[in-house]
Amino acid sequence: MRKRKLPQNFRILGIETTCDETAAAVLEGGKRLVSSEVYSQVSLHKKFCGIVPEIASRAHSEKISFIISKALGKIKSNKPINAVSFASGPGLSGALLVGKIAAETLGKIYDVPAIGVNHLEGHLFACEFNCNDVSKRLKFPLVALIVSGGHTELWKVDGYGRYRILGSTRDDAAGEAFDKVAKLLGLGYPGGPAVEKYAFKNKCDAVKFPRPFLRGNFDFSFSGLKTSVSYYIRDNKRVNVAAVCAGFQSAVVDTLVFKTISAANRYNVKNVVIGGGVSANAALRFKMSDVCKQNDINIFFADKKFCSDNAAMIALAGHKKIEFGARVNDLKQIDPQLRIKNWRFSK
After folding, report:
1. Cα separation of 63 and 75, whole Å?
2. β-bridge pairing 114-118 and 129-130
3. What is the pLDDT of residue 316?
4. What pLDDT digit, counting tens, does each position of 58-107 carry?
C-alpha cells in the first residue's frame, strides 16, 4: 500500500443519502472541511415513528440539488472539485440511488471520478474530525464499534482499508432498540435522544433489565431486551418512564462496553474507536471512556456533530481511498446490504 501525495487544494465532494438525511460536503486537502450541509427528514417521518422508504427517497430527490449547490457555493474556483464520493451502501435502495445518480452526473459535468464508499466506513473515519479539521489520526491496530440506527458491529482494523468483522447484529441493532422502546413509551421519533433525555432524570438501577452479552462471541442481539421492556410495561400499571429509560439505556451501554473491551483484550489491541449515531449518547461515552482508562486503552469518539449521518465522513472516506491507492471502481453499484470489505489496491 503506497500513499499518494495529493495537491493541497485537492477537493472532494461527499454525498450522503443512505437513510433520512440528505447531505453534501466539500473536503479540501484531506484536512479542511470547506462546507457541510445537511437536510434532515425527521419532521417527515416523525408521525410514523420510523423511516418510510418511499417518503425518504422522494425527499432526497427533491432536496439533493439544493444541498449540493449550497455545499459547492462556498468554493470560488472554475473547477471546484477534483472528485466526488457517494455512499453506495448499506441503506435504503431508493435513497442510495439518488446519491449515486447525483454523484455520477457531477462526475460527468466536472470530468472527475465518482467514487462509491461504504457508509459504515464513513462512521469510522468521522472519528478523525476535530471541529472542521481532520486533525486526529486513528492509531492502528484498533477495535472499532460502529453503532448506528440499523447496524451494531465490531471490527478489528489493521490500517486504512484493512478490516476484519468480529461481530455484527443478529436482530435489532442498538439504534433500532432505542427507537422501538421510545415508541413503546410514547416518546416519539427519533428514539435515541428521547430515551437519553428521560434516562438522565433517573437512577440507572431503578429498573433492571437483562444484559444480552451473548458470551463466547462478539455478536449483538437487542431484540430480547426490547421484549423485556415491553413485558415490564405490560405487567406494571404505573410505569415510571424515566426509570424504564434509565434501566434500558444502562443495559444497552453495559452490553456495548462489555463486548468492545472484551474484543480489545482478546486481540491485545490498545486503541478503540466508537462511531455512528448512538455514539453520541453521553452515558455510552462516559462508561466506555472510564472502562478504557481502567484497561489502559486509548479511546476515540467522533465529535457529536459528526456522529449522525453526514457527508463530511463520506468525503473523507473517498479521499482516503484515493490517497492510499484503492481501486475506486469497486463500489460503483449500490448495495442496500453492503458489508465492510478490505480495499483492493491498484498496482
Report:
1. 20
2. unpaired
3. 97
4. 999 999 999 999 999 989 777 799 999 999 999 999 999 999 999 999 99
In order of 117, 124, 327, the CA distances from 332 in angstroms are: 9, 21, 11
Specify whether the CB–CB gap between 210 and 225 falls below 8 A.
Answer: yes
Cβ–Cβ contacts within 10 Å for residue 336, how many? 16
Q: Determine phi and psi for 143, rounding to 5 degrees.
A: -105, 125
301 grid coordinates: 469518539
Question: Among 24-33, 39-48, 287-296, which stretch is predicted with the lowest mean pLDDT?
Answer: 39-48
Cα separation, 42 vs 308, whole angstroms: 12
166: exposed, middle or buried (Cβ count in 10 Å: 0-12, 13-18, 19+):
buried
* Mean of all residue pLDDT scores within the chain: 93
Asked if 241 and 184 touch (Cβ cutoff 8 Å), the reply is no
Tens digit of each residue's pLDDT (9 = 90 or more) over 267-301: 999 999 999 999 999 999 999 999 999 999 999 99
Residue 284: which of 183, 191, 200 has the closest Cα?
200
Q: Are 24 and 67 in contact (CB under 8 A)?
A: yes
The pLDDT-based confidence of 49 (bands split at 50, 70, 90) is confident
Long-range contacts of 124-127 (CB under 8 A, 24+ apart): 124/155, 124/157, 124/273, 124/275, 125/313, 125/316, 125/317, 125/320, 126/275, 126/302, 126/303, 126/306, 126/307, 126/310, 126/312, 126/313, 126/316, 127/273, 127/274, 127/275, 127/300, 127/301, 127/302
Domains of the chain and CATH, by start = 11-131+307-323 (3.30.420.40), 142-302 (3.30.420.40)
